Structure to design on (154 residues):
């Protein structure tokens, strides 16, 4: 499935740490930053999670919730979060249902070779439930600042 800016955001429900579940329906009326990342505790993914955690108070002040999504398990997320003192919500999507629904799974270049996998992507959902911004094929450095600016301007 391909999503576009202006579309109604596809609903989701995913497990998070502590036996909880995060649902888009429960976040109605709030801005939602969904950032899709390939794997817990890898260099780029760790930097991105730490950057989002560092700016979390600013996102919350702008009325946004930040959710990281990967195909890793809840247990993996708990270890990753504890190791790096992460404050963002990390949702598990091992069956890739949400990842694929949001267009973050597909062909990509990895070290000069074509592979199929998670494409680092960020999606900003407005308080109205529509997709406000999509950042495909994210480069981690400076990305969080761009997303925060978009949240503030929404």
């Amino acid at each position: 499935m391909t999503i576009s800016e202006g579309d109604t955001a596809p609903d989701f429900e995913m497990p998070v740490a502590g036996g909880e579940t995060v649902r888009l329906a429960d976040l109605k009326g709030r801005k939602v930053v969904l950032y899709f990342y390939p794997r817990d505790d890898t260099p780029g993914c760790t930097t991105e999670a730490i950057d989002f955690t560092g700016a979390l108070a600013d996102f919350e002040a702008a009325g946004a919730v930040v959710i990281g999504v990967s195909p890793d398990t809840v247990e993996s997320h708990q270890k990753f979060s504890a190791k790096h003192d992460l404050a963002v919500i990390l949702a598990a999507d091992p069956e890739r249902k949400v990842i694929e629904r949001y267009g973050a799974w597909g062909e990509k270049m990895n070290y000069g070779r074509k592979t199929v996998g998670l494409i680092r992507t960020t999606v900003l959902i407005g308080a109205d439930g529509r997709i406000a911004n999509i950042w495909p094929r994210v480069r981690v450095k400076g990305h969080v600042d761009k997303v925060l600016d978009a949240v503030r301007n929404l």
The mean pLDDT is 95. The helical segments are 43-54, 56-61, 74-84, 97-101, 143-152. The first strand starts at residue 13 and ends at 15.
